[in-house]
């Protein structure tokens, strides 16, 4: 079950059968779904990928 916000119903839990699509993007994963009431929606889920620091900025191994 996934917690989403439907403009008509408010906060609802949907199951896997209500998920229409998942798409990776630069700022996270976009999940497209259909609420129990039939209204389609989309929300960002997950996290955006971490930006890696260049090796010159990284901490040397063994230091905390």
What do you see in this structure?
The protein is 0% helix and 47% strand. It is an all-beta fold and 64 residues long. It has a domain at 2-45. The strands form two sheets. A three-stranded antiparallel β-sheet has the order 3-4-5, with no helix packed on it. The radius of gyration is 18 Å and the shape is elongated.
At a glance:
By secondary structure, this protein is an all-beta fold. It has strands spanning 2-6, 10-14, 19-25, 28-34, 40-45.
Descriptive labels:
5 strands, two-stranded antiparallel sheet, elongated, mainly beta, about 60 residues, single chain, three-stranded antiparallel sheet
SSE arrangement:
Elements: E1 2-6, E2 10-14, E3 19-25, E4 28-34, E5 40-45
